[in-house]
Specification:
about 350 residues, alpha/beta, Aminopeptidase, eight-stranded mixed β-sheet, two-stranded antiparallel ribbon, 9 helices, 12 strands, about 20% strand
Length: about 350
């Protein structure tokens, strides 16, 4: 879209962002209306509504040690390159984690260059709108001969840690949330492309009729995670830079850019409300990630450590696809950056899908 219509749309999005970040006067009026301020020790220090507080109670269940342990579990399989035994064993391990938390898992089977491949997903079924779904995803395959810790055990562990929290028996979600761990990202997003090709036409179809079961709920948005721990500047510094942040990207040159920008704004605001250490920033040049096959079909964003085209693509991560992508390379601060991305996504998807602890806000 170009011309005055596009400018009006951009202005509307900018206005929405301003509305979602209230002035002191608006915050004061909300406080007088019963909105309580956020407790100290979190990133944004902005007032929280009762609905926000219910989401915060869920986000506070995230556990940094659990997130790190999941990364270590994936690293134990090496780089998990597609088509290898270590890749197959890692998929089995991911499925075991999901099942241990009570999920029914599904293997999506497809072919890559004439050879069979698979990837696994699980779904938190919505209580009131099971036919609508947000997808939270990350690719589990890697390359480079190391442990593929940042690319992409960090994003896979993020998805798994959120799945663990939402699996608790006292957590209810209005809409469905699906956790997908893609394979074949490193060969050209082939796992995600196969999923879209096989399942896009199945959205919202009840099966069997009258059962209330929707094998492929209608896509409301995709939040993809790929490399979320390493922000050391460019030129690259030994230590994490002081202004490290979580990068949220959408693709302006896509059919659903407006919906995608609104989804990105939801993540930016969730970061300010619920993350503890690192801010989030937004840009509009998402590419080379598993949300791209969805970008013309539904709202789609990518959560990363840096912008893919302008920073990662220009050398901001010297460990990318290298043997040095191993646990020993990353500091406590690096792992914390990945954990803050986890807080950001859970805060956003819980707000959007209506996920709450049953005793909080229900």
């Amino acid at each position: 879209m170009t011309g005055p219509g596009a400018l009006r749309s951009l202005a509307a999005i900018a206005a929405l962002a301003l509305l979602l970040a209230p002035t002191d006067a608006v915050a004061q009026r909300r406080s007088e209306g019963g909105v309580r301020p956020m407790p100290s020790g979190v990133l944004g220090d902005v007032p929280l509504s009762p609905e926000d507080e219910a989401v915060q109670a869920l986000v506070q269940r995230l556990d940094f040690d659990s997130y790190r342990t999941l990364i270590e579990g994936l690293a134990a399989f090496g780089d998990r390159e597609q088509g290898t035994e270590r890749n197959a064993r890692a998929i089995d391990w991911i499925e075991e984690q999901l099942r241990s938390w009570g999920y029914e898992t599904v293997r999506h089977h497809y072919e890559f260059e004439g050879q069979p491949r698979s990837q696994v997903y699980a779904t938190k079924v919505g209580a009131t709108a099971p036919d609508e779904m947000y997808i939270v995803s990350g690719h589990m395959d890697g390359r480079g001969g190391g442990q593929a810790v940042n690319d992409n055990a960090s994003g896979t562990a993020l998805v798994l840690e959120i799945a663990r929290i939402l699996a608790a028996p006292d957590v209810r979600s209005d809409r469905s949330i699906r956790f997908i761990l893609w394979n074949n990202e490193e060969t050209g997003l082939d796992g995600a492309r196969a999923y879209v090709a096989d399942r896009a036409a199945l959205q919202g179809i009840e099966e069997p009729a009258g059962s209330g079961r929707y094998p492929e709920p209608r896509w409301l948005g995709v939040i993809q995670h790929d490399k979320v721990m390493f922000d050391h500047g460019n030129p690259v510094m030994h230590q994490q830079v002081l202004d490290a942040d979580v990068d949220v990207e959408y693709q302006l040159a896509s059919a659903r850019w407006e919906e995608s920008s609104r989804l990105a704004i939801a993540l930016i605001n969730a970061n300010r409300k619920f993350a503890t250490d690192y801010p989030a920033v937004m840009s509009n040049a998402m590419n080379n990630t598993d949300s791209m096959p969805f970008a013309d079909l539904t709202a789609a964003v990518s959560v990363r450590e840096n912008r893919r085209r302008y920073e990662i693509g220009r050398g901001s991560d010297p460990h990318w696809h290298r043997p040095s992508d191993v646990l020993a390379t990353f500091s406590e601060a690096d792992f914390r950056l990945g954990f803050n991305a986890t807080q950001t996504t859970l805060g956003a998807v819980a707000s959007l899908a209506g996920a709450r602890i049953a005793t909080a806000g229900r």
